[in-house]
Amino acid sequence: MKRRRLPLCLTALCVAVRIVTLKAQNDIKWCSMEGQMKSRFLQVLLAVFVVLAISQALSAPSSMGVGQKASAGPPFTPTPTPIETPSPLKVAPDTSVPATKSTADGKAQSFIQSVGPGAMRSGFETTDLNPNDDGSTGLVNIGFPINFFGATYTQLYVNNNGNVTFSGPMGTFTPFNIVTTGTVIIAPFFADVDTRSAGQPTRYGTGTVNERPAFGATWRDVDYYQSSASHTNRNHFQLLLIERSDVGAGDFDIEFNYDQIQWEAGTASGSGSNGLGGSSARAGYSNGSAAAFELPGSGVNGAFLDSNPATGLSQHSFNDGQMGRYVYQVRGGLTAAALTTDTVNLNTDTSVNATVTLQNVPAVGLGSYSMVVHFNPAVVTVESVGDGDAPFGSPITKIIDNTAGTVTLAASQSGATPSGTIVLARLNLRGIGNGASPLGITGNTLTDAAGAAMGHVVTPGVATVNTPVIAAGSGSVVVVGSAISIPVSVLGLVSQSLAAYNITISFDKTKITVNSVTGGPAPFGSPTSTIDNTAGTVALSQTVAGGFPTGNVTLASLNVQGVAVGASNFSIAVTTLTNSASAAITNTTVPGVVNVTPPPGQLHHIVVSPASPSLVVGGSETFTAQGYDAYDDPVAGLTFAWSLTGAAAGSINATTGVFTAGTEAGSYSNVIVATSGAITGNASVIVTPGPLHHTVVSPASPSLTVGGAQTFTAATFDQYNNARSGDTIVWSVGNATAGAINASTGAFTAGTVAGSYPNVVVATSGTVSGTASVTVIAGVRLPGDVNNDGVVDVLDLVAVAAAFGSVPTSPNRNADADLNQDGIVNILDLVVVGLNFGSHL
């Protein structure tokens, strides 16, 4: 309730009555006052009249009625907050990354009451992802390293739409299939979360779970797009990453917690107005390539909702007794259960076993499985299916279809239920073509010993059938003017016996020439060859009459002579490569390389000494240079031209190599250059500050109350303002009245006499000093001195008048004006000013 001010005349009367009363109470009679005091009192009373009149004029209420708007100027129209278009597709969604903020006390808080089964953990909500739609955080520290399918991460992005990612933020709002995505993602509930108009914002933070460090992201009481206060169905879910280095380096647990799931999609993802239907939420995780897992019910309308007792997320659990909690142990980069196939290499017409393995089976054990292994029937065939580990021996179902490129496997176990790592079957593969064949797995069903669906990821293998390789000699070295022999070979021929070839080899004609071609061992003699040093090519062609070779064979050798320093690649183009049946042999090529070096005694590189000297500003150093050939033997008789690439470093004599450091301290890499012909050598220089020239004290001129404290610091510089380090500072005070200072630390304590003390604080290093000034302000406030300027005058009356009638909640509140501290600025505070008017320190 606003307090009504007294009329001016009544106020003045109250002042007079109050003063007389106070005087009477102190046995002070007006008639006994001296003339000077009477005069001062009348002056104060007059000032009170003036100040109150000004105050009432300034604070007079408008003649406008309550709730009326001012007529002057155009009416104010608030700018509406943009919202998304309520259509099946979002129009201009809010994809900016919103700011985040921490809670006031920096501690984890539970922002609303728990709901559902109580699976969500507290303590992971210290920082808000401010209300947004499709936004994300920047990179957030996890707090510990995690090994996620072989990649180590220490940071992630928290995305508003119910997931975290690792390679970048993600604003996608309609959930995609996590199993087939190319995104590294962990998603407890991937759907279109919108926190702008209703519900709570997404929060994240760190904490502990069972005394282990953990990172968490919490979607508590979140709404769906298009967010509205009219929505009564909200979701409560959470993701935790729990450090488990006690098991192994990089190991961790993924924990999905669900307390309430009442919507499954946003309206832009095709749901109805109640967040049901459409492209429903998905949950799971993926390494972005071949290893991924989705919770059963992902993408299925109604599957995740609390109202579905069969698959509702809050109605079940995994690897934990707490309803609504799903725990996936990541050990050695793999999650709790991982279907894998071997990666194998084999040659054409040879066979090898590839195992199908289930890793990290939880303690409850494996009960049954049904799966399909896919392969490329043009590269490999499956000849048989062998037994796995007991109690899973030969699969009950093992259907080999080499036409379709599939093997179907299924088995169940009603007795002992194994855990850990289990080999389910062994596939005997035979190579029939060239290239690579994926050994992918589709895990149709996988149940634990209790018959519940087992979450798992799939890691496919690869069967590679080796391809014959045509290669030229690589890494050979030839000196300019000399020659070497370079072999041309076919490697890895198995049953595909070589009968004919036609090959062209290209080279850099400016670096080498090919003098001649010699034949390989029997049955390859000298091939038909065409050497073209103008075009830089050698063409080789031959047909083998009999004794078709296999394995590694040398077709021919090239006699190569070095022309100029550098490297030349031998690029190989194959026109023909056939076997004894005149069928083309699929092949690959590996280019060779020959490096040409200069002859002994020819300058190859220059070494500058000293390599990295340290000089004071203005200092000098004479650099020297020595040239060497390619074999690190010194080259005599050289002259060097000296230059400098960075003028700030200083200057150098072009003939003598005498360097003079500049005036700017710093580290200058490779700025010194010695040149002989086309060859250069470099050295670096470190320029250090010169002798101490001046000292700067901070702060330069602080104001302190009587007895107040201030710690001063000093920085030292050379004459060019280069900052120095390591100088010892001794502190002193030029005037003891100003205060005292610790000679070592610079901790200053103000004295008891107020005043201005110029250049009183002194910092000395050697013979050089710097100073700072101090202003000491009276620490005790006079009664009635509202503005604490050491005198009670009309300014204090003005300060009381400006706050007159205010209480602690008033907008014009000035606590210093409440001189009698009764909670309201009133006539009694004016009396205090009046009684002390003219007093000063």
Task: Describe the fold and architecture.
With 841 residues, this protein is mostly beta strands. The chain contains four helices and 54 strands. A seven-stranded antiparallel beta sheet has the order 1-2-7-8-9-10-13, with no helix packed on it. A hairpin with an 8-residue loop joins strand 9 (235-243) and strand 10 (252-260). Helix 1 (8-25) runs antiparallel to helix 2 (35-58) and helix 1 packs across helix 4.
Please write out the topology.
Layout lengths: L7 H18 L9 H24 L41 E3 L24 E3 L10 E9 L2 E9 L3 E3 L18 E7 L11 E8 L2 E11 L12 E9 L8 E9 L21 E6 L4 E3 L30 E6 L7 E4 L2 E3 L4 E11 L4 E9 L5 E7 L10 E5 L4 E7 L7 E12 L3 E14 L8 E3 L1 E5 L3 E4 L1 E6 L3 E11 L4 E9 L5 E8 L8 E5 L4 E7 L7 E12 L3 E14 L8 E3 L1 E6 L7 E5 L4 E3 L3 E3 L1 E5 L5 E2 L5 E4 L5 E3 L5 E4 L4 E11 L2 E10 L5 E5 L4 E3 L3 E3 L1 E5 L12 E4 L5 E3 L5 E4 L4 E11 L2 E10 L16 H9 L24 H9 L6
Parallel strand pairs: 14-23, 15-24, 25-34, 26-35, 37-45, 47-54
Antiparallel strand pairs: 1-2, 2-7, 3-4, 4-5, 5-6, 6-11, 7-8, 8-9, 9-10, 10-13, 11-12, 14-16, 16-21, 17-20, 17-22, 18-21, 19-20, 22-24, 25-27, 27-32, 28-31, 28-33, 29-32, 30-31, 33-35, 36-39, 38-43, 39-40, 41-44, 42-43, 44-45, 46-49, 48-52, 50-53, 51-52, 53-54
Helix pairs in contact: 1-2, 1-4, 2-3, 3-4
